[in-house]
Amino acid sequence: MNIFVGNLGPDVTEAEVAELFKPFGHVESVQLMRELFTGKLRGFGFVEMPGKQHSLAAIAGLNGKELAGRALQVNEARPESVAAGAVSRHISLGKRLI
User: pTM here?
Assistant: First the structure.
């Protein structure tokens, strides 16, 4: 299952996020999103875990937990097409996303 992790601090590493999730089961991958030109963290990322049971346990156990002084937002990642549709609606309504 693909898990969204938000409200990450600017100095958090992939290894730290993986260690946070390991007590709940095997972590297949961690991808933290970065700015294209600066390489700075954008404050969110994704964790891939096999199996729904371990993933749901991680979501329940880590949502709201502090990492580097910030309360994490952890939930099931939405399919990319759903997220892209939300962005399209904001752009068509003239809203700034930045």
Answer: 0.80
